[in-house]
Amino acid sequence: xxxxxxxxxxxxxxxxxxxxxxxxxxxxxxxxxxxxxxxxxxxxxxxxxxxxxxxxxxxxxxxxxxxxxxxxxxxxxxxxxxxxxxxxxxxxxxxxxxxxxxxxxxxxxxxxxxxxxxxxxxxx
Length: 124
Ligand code: FES
Description:
The chain has a single domain, classed as Roll (Ubiquitin-like (UB roll)). Helices cover 20% and strands 25% of the residues. It contains three helices and five strands, in the order αββαβαββ. It is globular. The site of FE2/S2 (inorganic) cluster has 13 residues, from loops.
């Protein structure tokens, strides 16, 4: 019984994340068993998903801008600083976030995001 409970707890900290792309020709990517505690930027980069990050992930640009379509409750809250940089992003919407600031909280669930067309950015 203990083992089953323990295993369930471990499995319970995993996310399924679907990445959609506005860039023409890219099909959605679904990642399973993604651990909490990482940012959506880190998750994208470690899975070879292109997401610009010109400031290196320190909330000082807006190139990691993305749209959270589902599962926003599983992501750390928006800070004032992040909101300021979202205002400078291309085509911000109500569900806009910065990928480097979207840390998955210690739960489990499903998240779906859409990445803007990355060909519009220069740099990393
Ligand atoms: S990488 Fe610059 S704000 Fe996220």
